Every structure is written in structure tokens, then in C-alpha cells.
DNA sequence: GTAACTGCAAAATATTTGCATCCTT
DNA sequence: AAGGATGCAAATATTTTGCAGTTAC
């Protein structure tokens, strides 16, 4: 994993520092979206809160991660997938938040359906959040 | 409008107080979703910040308004439409946020398309936020 | 060596809670 | 009259900013 995260940082022209590696590792081993709070709690060595803020901002700006909408005010974040690059992003996939366990993950198989918008509207980005009960919790 | 808001409050079994009327008026005359900050700024007489928090919570709990997702962490709110009642809610409509003017509004004409989810997922609520340039700003 | 990154302190914002008072029913 | 709603003060929590020291390249 070390190799993967270092590679990612290089690809996106970011210096490989410990904080960035740690946060990136966390994203890599989590298959769900993380909030700022999640990151602070779950990261290995305790990072300064400010560093987390700044790292997330940097990752966002460079396009390493993207925002995942949430219904509680506190945005989450997830790694961009292979389809994304520095040049352009393609995450018109669906996010599913389980109301039981609270986890939000990407339903990579589900595409956002095409929609016809009223005249004059230009679309830049689409975010679809479905809330309900996930597979694990509906047992 | 006085009559409308008083009626609404009665229907939802809420006491008609000045704060509630004011906030409800604001929602009624705004055709776009409002954040807590918007409300504090735009309401006629200046209400205590705490009252705004509590009023929004009450309106939400009773089902007078619903959350509108936002990409900046700070949830917005909008009135539920006729299709909603105390019994059940139906706002599977689409929200559009203009990246120019920042306004978010409901595209009442656009329905959320049906989607096939993987086995085991139960859907409770769907939120679709499209970002781009609105009709007014794309001139 | 230099620019970029980090951590600490502190400022600025945002949200929640407790309580006395006032208002709607 | 009684329970609910408000406003103020204060406690918490969150996010941003400045700056000095450290680190990656």
C-alpha cells in the first residue's frame, strides 16, 4: 500500500509527507466515504486537526478525492477512481448511505440515469445520494 | 400570505408564533432553498440565532420543510410541496444548484429516474443534486 | 537552498445547552 | 393555568488564519 499511495502522490505532483501518506492509506483501506471527523479518529498516528483540514483541501484541489454529499451537514470524501485524472473527472456514480450503520459508499455499478433538463440549464456535475438500508444491515 | 402560513402552522399542529411566521414567510416568498445563514440574514425582524436553529429543527421534525443537499457542508432547506403530508413525504424531485449565483432550486418538472439497485439494498430516500449554470445566469 | 508542509496558538464561526421569562392555547 | 417557545448567556464544537520551525525535493 505504501507503494500505491506514494505513486498516487507522485502522479498528482504532491510531496510525499507522512500526513498525506497516512490519510491516503486510510482512504485506500476504507471502502466507504470519510468525514473529517472519521479521518481524525481513524488515522493511525494522531495528526493535527489543522493538517487534516489542509490535506483534504489539497487533495480536493488536485483532484485526488471528491466530495460525497451527506444529509447531516458534514460532507464526506472519497478517493476518485481510475476513471478520474488530473484532466477530467467522471464520478457520475451513485452514493448510498445506510441509515443503520451510517456508512456511505459508492455503488460503482449503478450509473446516474440520463435526464432531460429544462431549456437553458447547463450541467457540470451530478450527485446522487440514496439513503436506506444496506446489504449488510438488512440481514 | 399571513393566512397561508397560519394555516400551515395549524395544519402541522404548531403554535403560531412570530418567529415561525417570519421564517415561514421567508420560505414562501423564496423560490430557492435556504441555508441557516440565509435565513438569519434575510428574515425581516432580526431573530435570535438560537430561535432559528430551533425553528428549523421543529419544522423538519414535523415535516414542514425538508433538507436540500449542498456541496459546501451547510445543508439547505426548502418547503415541502403539496405532495407531502404529515403521513408521508414525496420529494423525489431534483435540486439544481447554480455555480454562478449559488441558488439552489427544485426542478419540479424533473423526476428522479428509476434505478435498479444491487440485491439487498432498501431505499428510503433519494436526493439528487445537479450543479451547473442556471437559466438566468447562462444568458 | 528553497519552497512547501506541519504544528501550535489563537481568532473567528457555528452549534448546542440551561434557564428564566413570556406567550399561545 | 400550563406547557411550549423565546432570548440571553455560556458552554462546545468546528473551521480558518498567522507564524515559526521542519522537511521534501
Spans of at least 5 consecutive residues with low confidence of chain A: none
Q: How many domains, in number, for the residues of chain A?
A: 1
- Percentage of helical residues of chain A? 25-40%
The end-to-end distance of chain A, rounded to whole angstroms, is: 32 Å
Structure, described:
Two copies of one chain form a homodimer. The first copy, chain A, has 139 residues and is of the alpha+beta class. The first copy, chain A, has one domain (2-138): Winged helix-like DNA-binding domain superfamily/Winged helix DNA-binding domain (Arc Repressor Mutant, subunit A, Orthogonal Bundle), CATH 1.10.10.10. The first copy, chain A, is built from four helices and six strands. Chain A has helices spanning 2-11, 18-29, 36-42, 49-62; strands at residues 34-35, 65-68, 76-79, 93-98, 104-111, 122-133. The first copy, chain A, has a three-stranded antiparallel sheet. A three-stranded mixed sheet of chain A has the order 5-4-6, with no helix packed on it. The model of chain A has no long low-confidence stretch (mean pLDDT 90). The interface between A and B is large, with 38 and 38 residues. The structure holds a DNA duplex (25 and 25 nucleotides).
Task: Outline the fold blueprint.
The structure is a homodimer of 139-residue chains.
Chain A: H1 2-11, H2 18-29, E1 34-35, H3 36-42, H4 49-62, E2 65-68, E3 76-79, E4 93-98, E5 104-111, E6 122-133
Chain A binds a DNA duplex (25 and 25 nucleotides) through helix 2 and helix 4.
